Amino acid sequence: MRQPGFFGDFNQCSITAENGMLAVSTPYNHALVSAIKSLPYTDRKWDAGRKIWLVSPVHGKYLVDQILIQIGETVSLPQVNIQTNPEIKLFEVHYIGRCKDRGGEKAAFGMLADGSWGVIFPEAVLRAWFEVGEPLPMELNTLYAVLGVARQATGEEIKTGYRRMAKAWHPDLNRGDPDAADQFRRVQEAWEILSIPRMRARYDAGLRLEASMERSLDTQYLEGYRAPLRCGLIMAEGVEKLGRFAVSKIMEWQDIYNDAGQMLVVSWPMGAKEPVENWV
């Protein structure tokens, strides 16, 4: 039963259960919106069509308290089953953007083959998959990470990584993409250094020296991390939240090929409304 509010005979606000989430319906209130937006980005989602917030049930009591404080109404909280056990799923991801700050945690959204942004990749998860050891402070990505290979990679593995990344970031396949030219330059630089044993040895020595030094660089002002690959068949562990899969660990990442044996290369030209796909 709905309880009387402070500002009328019946509540203007309600919280209902919907597909394992809380559907929050209230009149517009700036302070309440700010309170909801302070929740982790993975735990809240605005449904513009219905003008409701979808929020993880773990924040139920917080929502009840905020509605009472900001609007002056007491609402009841429905019973919702909370998913806690992680799942392992395989996704065909056609685009991953640059990581951005989303409520205190940097992450990138992944676009699936159907065009929906159905996967969330925290920056820490992407870096854990692509980074090998500590990155250099002033560049954030080691040259090994640029080629997507381990520091212990053989010469043949480095060559394979170079060919893969050179194809993924080639300017001819990424026309109008503001990130492509810089990333392609980094791929060439990585190959020029890591393919020559004496230059690779010198670079490795620099990495060891950096690892032994105390770091004071604040990287908060720098752009968010950009994964060296922007698409792929990705097997990941995580949980379903608000209709999106929040990844906690990447377990496998393979290139996408069509029936003709061509690899998918994806770019997002400046001003474009959606990614551009090329099969090469």
Short description:
The protein folds into 2 domains: 1-82; 87-279, DnaJ domain (Helix Hairpins, Orthogonal Bundle).
User: Count of DSSP E strands?
Assistant: 12
User: What is the CATH third-level topology name of the largest domain?
Assistant: Helix Hairpins
Strand line-up of the largest beta sheet: 5-7-8-10-9
Low-confidence stretches: 1-8, 134-138, 216-221
CATH superfamily of the largest domain: DnaJ domain
What is the number of domains?
Answer: 2
Portion of residues in beta strands equals: 25-35%
How are helices and strands ordered from N to C?
EEHEEHEEEEHHHHHEEEE
Q: Would you give an account of this structure?
A:
The chain has 280 residues and is of the alpha+beta class. The protein is 28% helix and 25% strand. The chain is built from 7 helices and 12 strands. Strands 5-7-8-10-9 form a 5-stranded mixed beta barrel. The termini are far apart.
Topology, pairings included?
Blueprint: E1 14-18, E2 21-25, H1 30-37, E3 44-47, E4 52-55, H2 60-70, E5 87-96, E6 100-101, E7 106-112, E8 119-122, H3 123-130, H4 143-147, H5 155-169, H6 180-194, H7 197-212, E9 232-241, E10 244-254, E11 264-267, E12 276-279
Parallel strand pairs: 8-10
Antiparallel strand pairs: 1-2, 2-4, 3-4, 5-7, 5-9, 6-7, 7-8, 9-10, 11-12
